Give the backbone structure.
Amino acid sequence: MTVRGCRAAALAVGDELLDGFQADLNSPALARFLGERGWSLERVHVVGDREDVIAAALVELARDHALVLVSGGLGPTLDDLVRHGLARAAGVELEHNPEAWAQVQAWYQRSDRTPPPSNERQALLPRGARPLENAWGTAPGVHMCMAGTDVFALPGPPREYGPMLEAHVHPWLADQNGDGTVRRVQRFHLFGISESLFADQVAGWMERESNPLMGVTAKDGVLSVRLVAEAADEKRAQELLEVRAMEFTERLGAHVFSEDESDPAQVLGAELISTGTSVTTAESCTGGALAQALTGVAGISDVFREGVVTYANGAKVERLGVDEELLRAHGAVSGPVAEAMARGMAVKTGADLALATTGIAGPGGGTEDRPVGLVWFGVHFKGQTASLERRWPPVGRERIRRWATAQALVLGLQAVRGRFPD
């Protein structure tokens, strides 16, 4: 391992990535993969399908990193030019590799087919490179050393890229001595606190010189925090991590809903399944998104009773038994109605946990008293009912609905764990 240590870079190749027709899904997966193994993904480059641009990017990234991972550009068509870019960057020729060709042929033989002539391009490798078996597609990966840097080129489809990381890059990482630094990682997933308030709470913990180093990302109201402690030995790294994790929990533990999984639906679903707690949903502003999130959890059929979307007031009355006088007195978007929706659904289905949403997602329909972004949540758990109000800025209908869905899931999780809203 060189002085470049455990530093890696990613090169995502494809015109479709630059045109905006397809997102780069591999680099985020790679960052998680490397971080869990003590490596740092320091740069991500996205380039189009041009041999000269690919080669130039490889030369630049190899200069500063011990490991470069390329995704995409290994197919059989004329615009798949990663192999050519690798050869150009390394200053070597492309040549037919019998092992790579045998892998391509074996893929087709599984379904009693013969590879078309175009697939022969996938057997071209830079001189000195070795093919990486791909059990999930036709394109062999490529591993080569270039100016002291190891380069892995893997197919672009995530269903192939992820498994090949595990099959080929993971063993390589395990064989490296690293830079003598031991890294330990811990994660926290939070909801109900904005990024700005979070930044105020953690203060200097996010300075780049901090150890543990803290990073945070936000998605649909969920803040995912990553702590990375570094030391010369495992014991010291673990001590640093445990001290900061304890401080973090003392300061922000009320907002933490998981240390493993960032999706509230998966966390709540797993808890409901493991405890045999039945659940049901009654939705207005979220339009079924809450039920969809829960039913996306494997095994949820054991506990999920049913979900209804009661948009109209009449539906709330007829389907959930909400009192018409309650609607007239408080309006559909209110705490009493949210509670009545949850309680009515629990009675109707006999579920242990009932979650309800009612709000104004916009863009229209808001008033001074009830602006766009106002959402009330109802939760009923084993005879106890409560409600929660959230007011979000008018950031768009779909975004408010996603935030509301996440909030309802976290509210349900808190109820099951014995924490009801005040």
About this structure: The chain has a mean pLDDT of 93. The chain has three domains: 7-175, 182-258, 264-416.
